[in-house]
TrEMBL record:
Region annotated Disordered, chain positions: 1-50, 105-125
InterPro entries: NA-bd_OB-fold, Ribosomal_uS12, Ribosomal_uS12_bac
GO MF term (any one): structural constituent of ribosome
Organism: Magnolia grandiflora (Southern magnolia)
Transmembrane segments: none
Family: Belongs to the universal ribosomal protein uS12 family.
Coiled coil regions in record: none
UniProt GO BP: translation
Pfam families xrefs: Ribosom_S12_S23
Record-linked CDD domains: Ribosomal_S12
GO cellular component, one term: small ribosomal subunit
Stretches with biased composition (Basic and acidic residues): 10-23
Name by which UniProt lists this protein: Ribosomal protein S12
């Protein structure tokens, strides 16, 4: 505990806050190239393997991004677009890949929440 004289001379130091959007440079989306797609097991109460992609962004940052939805068509070194949004049960994963943009296809037969998964509007009967 500092003395009153020490506080007068030096004052209190502000706590530095960590920047969660360091890799994205404050941009809403960022383009990158995916070197590999591993799967990762989530934190304690959950157990299904999560599809995680390591992405090298256009500003040379390497991050892990979650691939939303069921199934994906990721091959070697495709161009992808990422957005923010962390995955609560996967440590270190703070972004998502955007489906239906660049080389990541949308989910073809999706009826609900289509805009989030890059799905086409179904033909009316």
């Amino acid at each position: 505990m500092p003395t009153l004289n020490q506080l007068i001379r030096h004052g209190r130091e502000e706590k530095r806050r960590t920047d969660r959007t360091r890799a994205s440079d404050q941009c809403p989306q960022k383009q990158g190239v995916r070197p590999r797609v591993p799967t990762r097991t989530p934190k304690k109460p959950n157990s299904a393997p999560r599809k995680i992609a390591k992405v090298r962004l256009s500003n040379r940052h390497d991050i892990f991004a979650h691939i939303p939805g069921e199934g994906h068509n990721s091959q070697e070194h495709p161009m992808v677009l990422i957005r923010g949004g962390r995955v609560k049960d996967s440590p270190g994963v703070k972004s998502h890949r955007i489906r239906g943009v660049k080389d990541l296809l949308g989910i073809p037969d999706r009826r609900r929440g289509r805009s989030k998964y890059g799905a086409e509007r179904p033909k009316s009967i």
